[in-house]
Each structure stands twice: as structure tokens, then as C-alpha cells.
Sequence to fold (163 residues):
Amino acid sequence: MSKWFNALVWAVSAMLVTMPLQADEYVETQWKELVPEGYKPPPVRSQAFYDANPELANQPELDAPMVEALDGKKIKIPGYVVQLEGDADKVTQFLLVPYYGACVHVPPPPPNQIVLVDFPEGVKYEDTFDAVWVEGVINVERVEGDVAVVGYRLTAATVKSFY
Fold:
């Protein structure tokens, strides 16, 4: 073999060793990817609609299907925080929802559009009033809570401002 070929093999090998593994990266995920193909979530309606129709102000489709292929995946997803647990300085558990006001001002979306996030490190309260990016490992797990039935649970590695 030529010296040139050996140098090329060495250079490519060195690049492969120093390149980050794709499996270690968080994959940016959109909310529609948490919904199985063919399932259509119910429409998002205003608080005024629910004030006029209080009998419809419950979480819809509690048996909504999940995307099983997401189980155990490393994802990065944007959303809004519905605070559940924490202390005087930070939130350590929250619901991540796709739009502002879900679970608080209007009924919760279906379970396949809510992620229960555990973040033991905690995120400062003031950082939870705007949209955030959450990175972590997601699991398909039904959790029935006081606020909503949830279809996914995520252990967060980071929670950062969206802006």
C-alpha cells in the first residue's frame, strides 16, 4: 500500500473517532411527532368557548394513542410549562404542553400532547413563564394526575429559554 493511502485511512479513522456519536445527540422533535399517523387531535378552542360550553371543558380523548417508537429516545422539544412541584426557588416537575394556557386556562389537550417532565436540578420559576426547550429521554408512560392524564414522561437533562 502506498504511504498516501495509509495516511488517508489514518485521517478518516481519526475523524470517525473524534466525531460526536449521533446517538448522544438530542433530536429536535415537534409536537405532531408525538401523535401517531392517522390520529387527529381535537381542535384547540378559546376560553370563551369553554365558558359558553362548560360541559365540554374536560380533557378530551383520554385513550388517545401514543407513538411507541419514541420510547427511550433522546429528544429536544419546545413547549410551555405547567408547574407541578418544586420549592421556593425552582420547579422540579412540570407538564410540558404545546400551547400557552393548556391545562390552566383551557382544558388539557389529549394525553399524547402532554409530557410530564422530571427535572431534579430544577428550573428557576421566572424561566417557566415563557416557552422553553427541554432536552431529555422520553418514555411512553401513562400517568393520571390531578391536572391531566399524560401519555409521555421525560427525564430532562436541560431546560432552557426558547428565546
